[in-house]
Amino acid sequence: MSEKNLQVLLRRRPVGEPVADDFEIVETAVPSPGPGEVLVRARFLSLDPYMRGRMSDAKSYSKPVELGAVMEGMTVGEVVASNHPDFKAGDTVMGGYGWQRFCAVEAARLRKVDPAEAPLSANLGVLGMPGLTAWYGLEEIGEPKAGETVVISAASGAVGQVAGQIAKARGARVIGIAGGAAKCAFVKDELGFDACLDHRGDLDAQLDAACPEGIDVYWENVGGHVQEAVFPRFRDFGRMVMCGMIAQYNQAPGADAKGAPAGPNLGPVVRKRLRIQGFIVSDKGWQLYPQFRAEVLGLMKSKKLVWKEDVVQGLPNAPEAFIGLLKGKNFGKLVIAID
Ligand SMILES: NC(=O)c1ccc[n+]([C@@H]2O[C@H](COP(=O)([O-])OP(=O)(O)OC[C@H]3O[C@@H](n4cnc5c(N)ncnc54)[C@H](OP(=O)(O)O)[C@@H]3O)[C@@H](O)[C@H]2O)c1
């Protein structure tokens, strides 16, 4: 093959905010698939907040990316060559095969998708890991009921936009929180949330006005000052879905004592009988993928669920786009169009 592979490697572990020099972009030979492997050409790469964790060697639920290794990430693309009977050239597949154009990957790490069902890149967002996260977290922990008030932080983002629309489809009153007027207008007018509050303004006053009876379910994507404002407003028996706290991902380990955003006083957990639960989508979520995909495709087809992507062109632009994601520069699910 005359074509070259293009890869983004982790050059060094960032301290605080990642910078472009923490990554290295290299051209290499296209790999040959080994026995039972499939050669995939990636068309789109998903950029997600969890990748900041993989750049660090602090103890976590998953192993870090080794220095000099390809950055981890989900892609969607097509099979170029296959040494496995379940896959043939031309199949559309999604899987975790990193920030690179080509990858030879074990067949077990791939999932076939039907390209007629949705645009290719949607398999990384609304029909991918972030959409599954939203659906799974609501099924397992949030359990929104008709008439309840659900608050979703990072509401215009990959997880937030799906979580809010599913909660709405289940009859809840859904209030988003996002950064800036454009994102808030999108969340209210296009996603159909009942309101969207700008966390750059006076969030306490906006929450008082939007949730006069308090909050039943809070979907936590952000942490920091947003969590601090939401937390005292829980109603009895509220549920807090601890999905992520992106505002804290660039903090050095052990920085909690100085420089970390203040956390809420957790005393009301007892008094109000709150349920706060963290989860990782890979716990059980992927086992439920067919159920999730069927429900969300149904909502998409009946126009009850819309989605927004932020598509950045070119794999070499992935590091800058990822650095921006950790500062709220993306508007919608961030994906890289590889070529
Ligand atoms: N538990 C799991 O299995 C799981 C799976 C997937 C994702 N997650 C978590 O879900 C959350 C959302 O992920 P996503 O993929 O949907 O990302 P996203 O919302 O598409 O993008 C991140 C958004 O977070 C907000 N943000 C970024 N930096 C911030 C900061 N310093 N302070 C406040 N807000 C900030 C920005 O929105 P605004 O401009 O609106 O503030 C930004 O657009 C993350 O915490 C992620 O780690 C967890």
TrEMBL record:
<dbReference type="InterPro" id="IPR045010">
    <property type="entry name" value="MDR_fam"/>
</dbReference>
<dbReference type="InterPro" id="IPR036291">
    <property type="entry name" value="NAD(P)-bd_dom_sf"/>
</dbReference>
<dbReference type="InterPro" id="IPR013149">
    <property type="entry name" value="ADH-like_C"/>
</dbReference>
<feature type="domain" description="Enoyl reductase (ER)">
    <location>
        <begin position="18"/>
        <end position="336"/>
    </location>
</feature>
<dbReference type="InterPro" id="IPR020843">
    <property type="entry name" value="ER"/>
</dbReference>
<dbReference type="InterPro" id="IPR041694">
    <property type="entry name" value="ADH_N_2"/>
</dbReference>
<protein>
    <submittedName>
        <fullName>NADP-dependent oxidoreductase</fullName>
    </submittedName>
</protein>
<dbReference type="InterPro" id="IPR011032">
    <property type="entry name" value="GroES-like_sf"/>
</dbReference>
<dbReference type="Pfam" id="PF16884">
    <property type="entry name" value="ADH_N_2"/>
</dbReference>
<keyword id="KW-0560">Oxidoreductase</keyword>
<dbReference type="Pfam" id="PF00107">
    <property type="entry name" value="ADH_zinc_N"/>
</dbReference>
